[in-house]
Predict the 3D structure of the following.
Amino acid sequence: MTAKNLTGESPFLLLGLSDDPQLQPLLFGLFLSMYLITGLGNMLIILAVTSDPHLHTPMYFFLSILSFVDICFTSTTIPKMLVNIQTQRKDISYPECLTQMYFFMMFGGMENFLLTVMAYDHFVAICHPLNYPVIMNPHLCGLLVLASWLVMFCVAMLHILLLVRLTFPVGTEIPHFFCELVQLLEVASSDALVNTICLYVVTALVCAFSASGILFSYRQILSSLMKLPNTASNHKAFSTCGSHLCVVALFYGTGFGVYLSSAVSLSPRYRAVASVMYSVVTPMLNPFIYSLRNQDVMGALGRLLRRAVPCPKWIPDPKLNGHYKP
């Protein structure tokens, strides 16, 4: 099989999670359900934050951006997988594969930075409450989101530009349900040493920056809370930080677990199955974690649903001896 660097043909075949034909309907229903739950849950968070004036604060602004990123994150991979299962095809074109990989890296990296920004927001709110409105002003909030996007735009573009240098055999099989950079580097027919070094260096820098920011923020938060008496505000702070820490642990735990397992596992298909946790399950669970542990979000969701589905008004009817009718 000859190695080519084609941009107009379909040199890649996504093998998916399983080759068993009997499992395809089950996989289609499962991933369609998770995709719909992810989209609906995160969309409700966005609508609740934008429609309720009580949630027009930096913390909930970042939460709404995170929900938007989660919708985009899952939309880069699941729709293509569902189409391939439904049409019983596995091919993906070269430009489509690069596009999918670019947006997957960008939105995945943005979620990483947003979690760091949210930790910093909690730090300012708890450790500097009097200066919180001044520090976390709308200009800074927008600048932090824009900076997260710009950094990941450059990072994702760097990997794509390095990737187009490589050659791939036509009909290259990728043991995954989407185009993942690590998998593509493994199946490339040309030397991918520069790409691999760049991947690990950039990933280490991004993760080190985010991890240090989160650890510093929560170290300061814990130190401040320990100096204060137990009050209702403290319990609310612990609850809010607990939700964020759950999302952080879920995102980083599943992400690191995939790449640690790939170092000891000989099966690329096992890595594909494990990657479902951070690419599909985590964005689906984020709305539940933030809403179920947050009374403000639950109240806003309740008010939103009451406006969307108004209850019938009952009025007394004299003909019914004081009974009510709609």
Observations:
- The CA atoms of residues 145 and 269 lie 35 Å apart.
- The two ends are 74 Å apart (CA to CA).
- The chain has a mean pLDDT of 85.
- DSSP finds eleven helices and seven strands in the chain.
